[in-house]
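Chapter summary example: a protein plus flavin-adenine dinucleotide.
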Amino acid sequence: MSKSISIIGCGIAGPVLAMLLKHKGFLPTIYERQPGVQQAGISLGLSPQTFKVLHILGLADACISLGSPLEEIVSYSQVRQEVIGKLDAPGRLREWLGWPLLMISRSAYSQFLYTTARERGIEVHFRKRLVDVLQEEEGVRAVFDDGTEAVSDLLVGCDGLHSTVRSVLFGAEEPAYLGLVQIGGFSPIPDIFRDWKGGKTYQVFGDGAHFLCTRVTDTQLAWATTVPEAEEAKEDWRRVSMTDPSGQALVQGLACADWENGPREVVASATFVTKYGLYDRPVGDTWHKGRVVLLGDAAHPTSPHMGQGANQAMEDIYHLVRLLVLAQPLTSASLSAAFTSYESLRAPIVARSVAQAKKEGQNRVLVGREQCEKRDENMMLRGKGQDPETVRLRMELFQGPFMGESEV
Ligand SMILES: Cc1cc2nc3c(=O)[nH]c(=O)nc-3n(C[C@H](O)[C@H](O)[C@H](O)COP(=O)(O)OP(=O)(O)OC[C@H]3O[C@@H](n4cnc5c(N)ncnc54)[C@H](O)[C@@H]3O)c2cc1C
Protein backbone atom coordinates (compact mmCIF):
# COMPACT_ATOMS: atom_id res chain seq x y z
CA MET A 1 0.00 0.00 0.00
CA SER A 2 1.34 3.47 -0.79
CA LYS A 3 0.52 6.38 1.47
CA SER A 4 -2.02 8.59 -0.29
CA ILE A 5 -4.58 10.12 2.04
CA SER A 6 -7.67 12.15 1.09
CA ILE A 7 -8.66 14.76 3.66
CA ILE A 8 -12.20 16.11 3.41
CA GLY A 9 -12.50 19.66 4.76
CA CYS A 10 -10.09 22.59 4.84
CA GLY A 11 -11.33 24.17 8.07
CA ILE A 12 -9.09 24.06 11.13
CA ALA A 13 -8.21 20.36 11.38
CA GLY A 14 -7.74 19.58 7.65
CA PRO A 15 -4.65 21.72 6.92
CA VAL A 16 -2.86 20.82 10.17
CA LEU A 17 -3.49 17.11 9.62
CA ALA A 18 -2.19 17.43 6.05
CA MET A 19 0.98 19.20 7.16
CA LEU A 20 1.76 16.69 9.91
CA LEU A 21 1.10 13.75 7.58
CA LYS A 22 3.38 15.23 4.92
CA HIS A 23 6.02 15.89 7.58
CA LYS A 24 5.98 12.15 8.30
CA GLY A 25 6.21 11.08 4.66
CA PHE A 26 2.54 10.53 3.75
CA LEU A 27 0.88 12.00 0.65
CA PRO A 28 -2.18 14.02 1.73
CA THR A 29 -4.57 15.96 -0.52
CA ILE A 30 -7.36 18.23 0.80
CA TYR A 31 -10.85 18.55 -0.74
CA GLU A 32 -13.05 21.45 0.44
CA ARG A 33 -16.61 22.27 -0.63
CA GLN A 34 -16.22 26.08 -0.35
CA PRO A 35 -14.69 28.18 -3.15
CA GLY A 36 -11.89 29.36 -0.80
CA VAL A 37 -11.06 30.05 2.85
CA GLN A 38 -14.14 31.66 4.39
CA GLN A 39 -13.91 35.06 6.07
CA ALA A 40 -16.52 33.97 8.57
CA GLY A 41 -17.08 33.15 12.23
CA ILE A 42 -15.77 34.99 15.26
CA SER A 43 -12.91 33.74 17.40
CA LEU A 44 -11.24 30.67 18.86
CA GLY A 45 -9.23 30.13 22.03
CA LEU A 46 -6.11 28.10 21.22
CA SER A 47 -4.77 26.32 24.28
CA PRO A 48 -1.32 24.73 24.80
CA GLN A 49 -2.30 21.45 23.08
CA THR A 50 -2.60 23.33 19.78
CA PHE A 51 0.83 24.90 20.16
CA LYS A 52 2.47 21.60 21.04
CA VAL A 53 1.22 20.22 17.71
CA LEU A 54 2.00 23.39 15.71
CA HIS A 55 5.49 23.43 17.25
CA ILE A 56 6.27 20.03 15.70
CA LEU A 57 5.73 21.84 12.38
CA GLY A 58 7.68 24.96 13.45
CA LEU A 59 4.49 27.06 13.31
CA ALA A 60 3.65 27.85 16.93
CA ASP A 61 5.37 31.24 17.23
CA ALA A 62 4.06 32.51 13.89
CA CYS A 63 0.55 31.59 14.99
CA ILE A 64 0.94 33.27 18.39
CA SER A 65 1.92 36.53 16.66
CA LEU A 66 -1.55 36.62 15.03
CA GLY A 67 -3.63 36.70 18.22
CA SER A 68 -3.66 37.92 21.79
CA PRO A 69 -2.27 35.70 24.60
CA LEU A 70 -4.77 35.67 27.45
CA GLU A 71 -3.53 36.85 30.84
CA GLU A 72 -6.67 37.08 32.94
CA ILE A 73 -10.39 36.26 32.99
CA VAL A 74 -12.58 38.70 34.92
CA SER A 75 -16.09 37.53 35.80
CA TYR A 76 -18.94 39.83 36.77
CA SER A 77 -22.36 38.95 38.14
CA GLN A 78 -25.15 41.04 36.68
CA VAL A 79 -27.43 39.76 39.42
CA ARG A 80 -25.12 40.60 42.32
CA GLN A 81 -23.77 43.68 40.51
CA GLU A 82 -20.19 42.87 41.44
CA VAL A 83 -17.01 41.24 40.19
CA ILE A 84 -17.17 37.62 41.32
CA GLY A 85 -13.66 36.59 40.43
CA LYS A 86 -10.41 37.18 38.63
CA LEU A 87 -8.56 34.15 37.30
CA ASP A 88 -4.92 34.73 36.38
CA ALA A 89 -4.13 31.06 35.62
CA PRO A 90 -4.17 31.68 31.81
CA GLY A 91 -1.26 34.13 32.20
CA ARG A 92 0.77 31.49 34.03
CA LEU A 93 0.25 28.72 31.44
CA ARG A 94 3.33 29.67 29.43
CA GLU A 95 5.49 29.24 32.52
CA TRP A 96 3.85 25.90 33.38
CA LEU A 97 3.36 24.29 29.97
CA GLY A 98 5.53 26.38 27.67
CA TRP A 99 2.62 27.73 25.66
CA PRO A 100 -0.10 30.36 26.18
CA LEU A 101 -3.86 30.41 25.78
CA LEU A 102 -4.27 32.52 22.64
CA MET A 103 -7.43 34.33 21.58
CA ILE A 104 -7.51 34.64 17.81
CA SER A 105 -9.91 35.51 15.00
CA ARG A 106 -11.12 32.21 13.53
CA SER A 107 -10.73 33.45 9.94
CA ALA A 108 -7.17 34.77 10.55
CA TYR A 109 -6.21 31.36 11.96
CA SER A 110 -7.90 29.45 9.15
CA GLN A 111 -6.19 31.64 6.51
CA PHE A 112 -2.81 31.16 8.22
CA LEU A 113 -3.20 27.36 8.24
CA TYR A 114 -4.32 27.23 4.61
CA THR A 115 -1.52 29.54 3.36
CA THR A 116 1.13 27.61 5.27
CA ALA A 117 -0.17 24.27 4.00
CA ARG A 118 0.01 25.56 0.39
CA GLU A 119 3.55 26.87 0.98
CA ARG A 120 4.48 23.39 2.16
CA GLY A 121 3.29 21.83 -1.05
CA ILE A 122 -0.12 20.49 0.08
CA GLU A 123 -2.65 20.31 -2.73
CA VAL A 124 -5.99 21.88 -1.78
CA HIS A 125 -8.95 21.47 -4.15
CA PHE A 126 -11.78 23.93 -3.52
CA ARG A 127 -15.39 23.58 -4.79
CA LYS A 128 -15.25 19.84 -4.07
CA ARG A 129 -18.29 18.90 -2.02
CA LEU A 130 -18.00 15.27 -1.00
CA VAL A 131 -21.24 13.37 -1.61
CA ASP A 132 -20.20 9.74 -1.23
CA VAL A 133 -17.35 7.46 -0.17
CA LEU A 134 -16.90 4.02 -1.73
CA GLN A 135 -14.64 1.55 0.00
CA GLU A 136 -12.89 -0.84 -2.36
CA GLU A 137 -10.53 -3.75 -1.93
CA GLU A 138 -7.36 -1.68 -2.22
CA GLY A 139 -8.43 1.87 -1.53
CA VAL A 140 -11.13 4.51 -0.99
CA ARG A 141 -13.00 6.41 -3.68
CA ALA A 142 -14.26 9.90 -2.76
CA VAL A 143 -17.14 11.10 -4.93
CA PHE A 144 -17.78 14.84 -5.35
CA ASP A 145 -20.87 16.76 -6.42
CA ASP A 146 -19.24 17.86 -9.70
CA GLY A 147 -19.05 14.21 -10.77
CA THR A 148 -15.30 13.88 -10.19
CA GLU A 149 -13.71 11.25 -7.97
CA ALA A 150 -10.45 10.82 -6.07
CA VAL A 151 -8.90 7.51 -5.11
CA SER A 152 -6.54 7.14 -2.16
CA ASP A 153 -5.36 4.54 0.34
CA LEU A 154 -7.33 6.06 3.18
CA LEU A 155 -9.67 8.96 3.80
CA VAL A 156 -10.07 11.23 6.82
CA GLY A 157 -13.31 13.12 7.38
CA CYS A 158 -12.42 16.59 8.74
CA ASP A 159 -15.71 17.94 7.44
CA GLY A 160 -17.07 19.40 10.64
CA LEU A 161 -20.37 19.47 12.50
CA HIS A 162 -22.62 18.18 9.69
CA SER A 163 -20.02 15.71 8.38
CA THR A 164 -20.99 13.91 5.18
CA VAL A 165 -18.25 11.35 5.76
CA ARG A 166 -19.88 10.51 9.08
CA SER A 167 -23.31 10.11 7.44
CA VAL A 168 -21.86 7.80 4.81
CA LEU A 169 -20.19 5.66 7.48
CA PHE A 170 -22.87 5.56 10.16
CA GLY A 171 -26.12 6.89 8.65
CA ALA A 172 -27.54 10.39 8.48
CA GLU A 173 -28.18 11.49 12.04
CA GLU A 174 -28.30 15.23 12.66
CA PRO A 175 -26.37 16.69 15.62
CA ALA A 176 -28.42 17.66 18.68
CA TYR A 177 -29.53 21.28 18.90
CA LEU A 178 -28.93 22.42 22.49
CA GLY A 179 -31.67 25.07 22.61
CA LEU A 180 -29.05 27.85 22.77
CA VAL A 181 -27.78 30.39 20.27
CA GLN A 182 -24.86 32.75 20.31
CA ILE A 183 -24.93 36.18 18.76
CA GLY A 184 -21.59 37.89 18.56
CA GLY A 185 -19.05 39.70 16.47
CA PHE A 186 -16.13 42.09 16.48
CA SER A 187 -15.89 45.55 18.06
CA PRO A 188 -13.11 48.07 18.60
CA ILE A 189 -11.83 47.97 22.21
CA PRO A 190 -14.06 50.58 23.91
CA ASP A 191 -12.69 53.34 26.16
CA ILE A 192 -14.05 51.56 29.22
CA PHE A 193 -11.50 48.75 28.63
CA ARG A 194 -8.58 50.98 27.55
CA ASP A 195 -6.65 50.27 30.76
CA TRP A 196 -6.49 46.53 29.99
CA LYS A 197 -2.88 45.50 30.18
CA GLY A 198 -2.31 42.42 28.07
CA GLY A 199 -4.93 39.95 26.95
CA LYS A 200 -8.11 39.82 28.92
CA THR A 201 -11.49 38.12 28.80
CA TYR A 202 -14.40 39.81 30.52
CA GLN A 203 -17.52 37.78 31.09
CA VAL A 204 -20.87 38.65 32.62
CA PHE A 205 -23.28 36.12 34.12
CA GLY A 206 -26.84 37.41 33.94
CA ASP A 207 -30.33 36.07 34.50
CA GLY A 208 -31.03 33.98 31.36
CA ALA A 209 -28.05 35.30 29.39
CA HIS A 210 -24.26 35.32 29.40
CA PHE A 211 -21.89 37.77 27.72
CA LEU A 212 -18.20 37.35 26.99
CA CYS A 213 -15.70 39.57 25.23
CA THR A 214 -12.03 38.97 24.66
CA ARG A 215 -9.17 40.85 23.10
CA VAL A 216 -8.06 39.29 19.80
CA THR A 217 -5.72 42.03 18.53
CA ASP A 218 -4.30 45.27 19.99
CA THR A 219 -7.37 47.16 18.80
CA GLN A 220 -10.15 44.59 18.49
CA LEU A 221 -12.45 42.54 20.72
CA ALA A 222 -14.40 39.46 19.78
CA TRP A 223 -17.62 39.01 21.77
CA ALA A 224 -20.60 36.69 22.03
CA THR A 225 -23.73 36.44 24.11
CA THR A 226 -25.36 33.07 24.81
CA VAL A 227 -29.16 33.00 25.09
CA PRO A 228 -31.84 30.28 24.98
CA GLU A 229 -33.85 30.02 21.77
CA ALA A 230 -36.33 27.27 21.04
CA GLU A 231 -36.03 27.57 17.29
CA GLU A 232 -32.88 26.15 15.68
CA ALA A 233 -30.53 28.68 14.10
CA LYS A 234 -28.31 26.61 11.81
CA GLU A 235 -24.80 28.02 11.63
CA ASP A 236 -23.34 29.30 8.39
CA TRP A 237 -20.95 31.55 10.32
CA ARG A 238 -21.63 34.36 7.83
CA ARG A 239 -20.70 37.79 9.15
CA VAL A 240 -23.26 40.54 8.65
CA SER A 241 -22.17 44.18 8.64
CA MET A 242 -23.79 46.39 11.26
CA THR A 243 -24.46 48.91 8.51
CA ASP A 244 -26.88 46.30 7.13
CA PRO A 245 -30.42 46.28 8.65
CA SER A 246 -30.17 42.51 9.14
CA GLY A 247 -27.05 43.08 11.30
CA GLN A 248 -28.95 45.61 13.42
CA ALA A 249 -31.84 43.15 13.74
CA LEU A 250 -29.54 40.49 15.21
CA VAL A 251 -28.59 42.65 18.20
CA GLN A 252 -32.03 44.18 18.71
CA GLY A 253 -33.52 43.22 22.06
CA LEU A 254 -30.38 41.50 23.41
CA ALA A 255 -30.35 41.76 27.21
CA CYS A 256 -26.59 42.42 27.26
CA ALA A 257 -27.01 45.48 25.01
CA ASP A 258 -28.24 47.29 28.15
CA TRP A 259 -25.68 45.93 30.62
CA GLU A 260 -23.36 48.58 32.03
CA ASN A 261 -19.59 48.31 32.57
CA GLY A 262 -18.72 47.17 29.05
CA PRO A 263 -21.28 44.97 27.25
CA ARG A 264 -23.42 47.94 26.21
CA GLU A 265 -20.45 49.77 24.64
CA VAL A 266 -19.15 46.60 22.95
CA VAL A 267 -22.48 45.69 21.36
CA ALA A 268 -23.17 49.28 20.29
CA SER A 269 -19.84 49.59 18.46
CA ALA A 270 -19.91 46.17 16.74
CA THR A 271 -18.70 46.22 13.14
CA PHE A 272 -19.84 42.72 12.15
CA VAL A 273 -22.19 40.24 13.80
CA THR A 274 -23.19 36.64 13.29
CA LYS A 275 -25.69 34.27 14.89
CA TYR A 276 -25.42 30.50 15.21
CA GLY A 277 -27.12 27.67 17.04
CA LEU A 278 -25.14 25.45 19.41
CA TYR A 279 -24.96 21.71 18.82
CA ASP A 280 -23.19 18.60 19.98
CA ARG A 281 -23.49 14.83 19.64
CA PRO A 282 -23.11 12.01 22.09
CA VAL A 283 -19.47 10.92 21.68
CA GLY A 284 -19.52 7.44 20.20
CA ASP A 285 -16.61 5.06 20.64
CA THR A 286 -16.27 4.10 16.96
CA TRP A 287 -15.02 6.71 14.54
CA HIS A 288 -13.89 4.53 11.65
CA LYS A 289 -15.02 1.93 9.18
CA GLY A 290 -12.56 0.18 6.89
CA ARG A 291 -10.14 2.74 5.52
CA VAL A 292 -12.16 5.79 6.53
CA VAL A 293 -11.86 7.64 9.83
CA LEU A 294 -13.33 10.80 11.40
CA LEU A 295 -11.45 13.60 13.14
CA GLY A 296 -12.30 16.91 14.89
CA ASP A 297 -15.91 18.10 14.81
CA ALA A 298 -16.82 15.33 12.36
CA ALA A 299 -16.09 12.83 15.15
CA HIS A 300 -17.11 14.82 18.23
CA PRO A 301 -18.78 18.22 17.77
CA THR A 302 -19.17 20.25 20.94
CA SER A 303 -20.79 23.43 22.17
CA PRO A 304 -18.10 26.11 22.55
CA HIS A 305 -18.17 26.77 26.30
CA MET A 306 -15.02 24.80 27.16
CA GLY A 307 -13.10 26.47 24.31
CA GLN A 308 -11.92 23.01 23.29
CA GLY A 309 -13.33 22.19 19.81
CA ALA A 310 -10.29 23.32 17.83
CA ASN A 311 -7.86 22.10 20.50
CA GLN A 312 -9.30 18.60 20.78
CA ALA A 313 -9.02 18.36 16.99
CA MET A 314 -5.26 18.98 17.35
CA GLU A 315 -5.00 16.16 19.88
CA ASP A 316 -6.80 13.86 17.44
CA ILE A 317 -4.27 14.81 14.78
CA TYR A 318 -1.29 14.13 17.02
CA HIS A 319 -2.47 10.66 17.99
CA LEU A 320 -3.78 9.64 14.58
CA VAL A 321 -0.53 10.57 12.83
CA ARG A 322 1.58 8.96 15.58
CA LEU A 323 -0.40 5.72 15.25
CA LEU A 324 -0.31 5.75 11.43
CA VAL A 325 3.47 6.09 11.52
CA LEU A 326 3.66 3.07 13.83
CA ALA A 327 1.17 1.12 11.68
CA GLN A 328 3.47 1.09 8.65
CA PRO A 329 3.48 -0.78 6.35
CA LEU A 330 -0.22 0.12 6.13
CA THR A 331 -2.36 -2.97 5.68
CA SER A 332 -6.06 -3.45 6.37
CA ALA A 333 -5.16 -5.11 9.67
CA SER A 334 -2.59 -2.50 10.78
CA LEU A 335 -4.97 0.34 9.85
CA SER A 336 -7.82 -1.21 11.77
CA ALA A 337 -5.58 -1.59 14.85
CA ALA A 338 -4.36 2.03 14.53
CA PHE A 339 -7.88 3.44 14.19
CA THR A 340 -9.11 1.40 17.16
CA SER A 341 -6.26 2.64 19.36
CA TYR A 342 -6.94 6.21 18.21
CA GLU A 343 -10.61 5.98 19.19
CA SER A 344 -9.98 4.33 22.52
CA LEU A 345 -7.40 6.95 23.46
CA ARG A 346 -9.44 9.93 22.34
CA ALA A 347 -13.13 9.14 22.92
CA PRO A 348 -13.15 9.09 26.76
CA ILE A 349 -11.36 12.45 27.02
CA VAL A 350 -13.46 14.25 24.41
CA ALA A 351 -16.63 12.82 25.94
CA ARG A 352 -15.78 14.57 29.22
CA SER A 353 -15.04 17.83 27.45
CA VAL A 354 -18.28 17.74 25.41
CA ALA A 355 -20.35 16.93 28.54
CA GLN A 356 -18.77 19.73 30.61
CA ALA A 357 -19.26 22.23 27.75
CA LYS A 358 -22.96 21.36 27.69
CA LYS A 359 -23.25 21.74 31.46
CA GLU A 360 -21.36 25.05 31.33
CA GLY A 361 -23.79 26.29 28.65
CA GLN A 362 -26.82 25.45 30.79
CA ASN A 363 -25.22 27.16 33.77
CA ARG A 364 -24.69 30.32 31.75
CA VAL A 365 -28.38 30.76 30.93
CA LEU A 366 -29.95 29.87 34.28
CA VAL A 367 -33.20 31.75 34.82
CA GLY A 368 -34.45 33.20 38.13
CA ARG A 369 -32.75 35.50 40.61
CA GLU A 370 -32.38 32.92 43.37
CA GLN A 371 -30.73 30.30 41.12
CA CYS A 372 -28.43 32.85 39.55
CA GLU A 373 -27.33 34.21 42.92
CA LYS A 374 -26.51 30.68 44.08
CA ARG A 375 -24.55 29.99 40.89
CA ASP A 376 -22.59 33.24 41.13
CA GLU A 377 -21.85 32.79 44.82
CA ASN A 378 -20.51 29.29 44.17
CA MET A 379 -18.24 30.59 41.42
CA MET A 380 -17.09 33.47 43.62
CA LEU A 381 -16.25 31.26 46.59
CA ARG A 382 -14.89 28.20 44.79
CA GLY A 383 -13.79 29.02 41.25
CA LYS A 384 -12.42 32.58 41.01
CA GLY A 385 -15.49 33.51 38.95
CA GLN A 386 -15.73 30.20 37.05
CA ASP A 387 -17.42 26.87 37.59
CA PRO A 388 -14.72 25.01 39.58
CA GLU A 389 -15.31 21.80 37.58
CA THR A 390 -14.77 23.66 34.33
CA VAL A 391 -11.49 25.14 35.61
CA ARG A 392 -10.26 21.74 36.82
CA LEU A 393 -11.06 19.97 33.59
CA ARG A 394 -9.54 22.72 31.45
CA MET A 395 -6.29 22.52 33.41
CA GLU A 396 -6.23 18.76 32.87
CA LEU A 397 -6.97 19.06 29.15
CA PHE A 398 -4.27 21.70 28.64
CA GLN A 399 -1.70 18.99 29.43
CA GLY A 400 -2.57 16.94 26.35
CA PRO A 401 -1.72 15.40 23.96
CA PHE A 402 1.72 14.80 25.49
CA MET A 403 3.99 16.18 28.20
CA GLY A 404 7.73 16.42 27.51
CA GLU A 405 8.98 15.34 24.10
CA SER A 406 6.65 14.69 21.15
CA GLU A 407 6.58 11.11 19.88
CA VAL A 408 5.73 12.22 16.34
C1 LIG B 1 -16.61 29.10 8.46
C2 LIG B 1 -16.52 28.59 9.88
C3 LIG B 1 -16.43 29.51 10.93
C4 LIG B 1 -16.39 29.06 12.26
N1 LIG B 1 -16.31 29.98 13.27
C5 LIG B 1 -16.26 29.57 14.55
C6 LIG B 1 -16.21 30.50 15.63
O1 LIG B 1 -16.24 31.71 15.43
N2 LIG B 1 -16.16 30.02 16.90
C7 LIG B 1 -16.15 28.68 17.16
O2 LIG B 1 -16.08 28.27 18.34
N3 LIG B 1 -16.19 27.76 16.16
C8 LIG B 1 -16.23 28.17 14.88
N4 LIG B 1 -16.29 27.25 13.85
C9 LIG B 1 -16.18 25.82 14.20
C10 LIG B 1 -14.71 25.47 14.52
O3 LIG B 1 -13.87 25.82 13.46
C11 LIG B 1 -14.63 23.98 14.80
O4 LIG B 1 -15.51 23.68 15.86
C12 LIG B 1 -13.27 23.48 15.28
O5 LIG B 1 -12.23 24.35 14.96
C13 LIG B 1 -12.96 22.07 14.74
O6 LIG B 1 -12.51 22.18 13.39
P1 LIG B 1 -12.85 21.17 12.23
O7 LIG B 1 -11.77 21.35 11.23
O8 LIG B 1 -13.13 19.83 12.77
O9 LIG B 1 -14.24 21.71 11.61
P2 LIG B 1 -14.50 23.04 10.80
O10 LIG B 1 -13.57 24.11 11.19
O11 LIG B 1 -15.95 23.30 10.91
O12 LIG B 1 -14.15 22.65 9.27
C14 LIG B 1 -14.92 21.74 8.48
C15 LIG B 1 -14.65 22.04 7.02
O13 LIG B 1 -15.21 21.00 6.22
C16 LIG B 1 -15.84 21.57 5.10
N5 LIG B 1 -16.86 20.63 4.62
C17 LIG B 1 -18.03 20.32 5.23
N6 LIG B 1 -18.72 19.40 4.50
C18 LIG B 1 -17.96 19.14 3.42
C19 LIG B 1 -18.14 18.28 2.29
N7 LIG B 1 -19.25 17.50 2.15
N8 LIG B 1 -17.18 18.24 1.34
C20 LIG B 1 -16.04 19.01 1.47
N9 LIG B 1 -15.83 19.85 2.51
C21 LIG B 1 -16.77 19.91 3.48
C22 LIG B 1 -16.41 22.87 5.65
O14 LIG B 1 -16.70 23.79 4.63
C23 LIG B 1 -15.28 23.34 6.55
O15 LIG B 1 -14.33 24.13 5.86
C24 LIG B 1 -16.38 27.66 12.52
C25 LIG B 1 -16.47 26.74 11.47
C26 LIG B 1 -16.55 27.20 10.16
C27 LIG B 1 -16.65 26.18 9.01
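Key point: The pocket of flavin-adenine dinucleotide is lined by residues 8-14, 31-34, 38, 40-44, 106, 128-130, 158-160, 164, 237, 296-298, 304, 309-310, 313 (CB under 6 Å).
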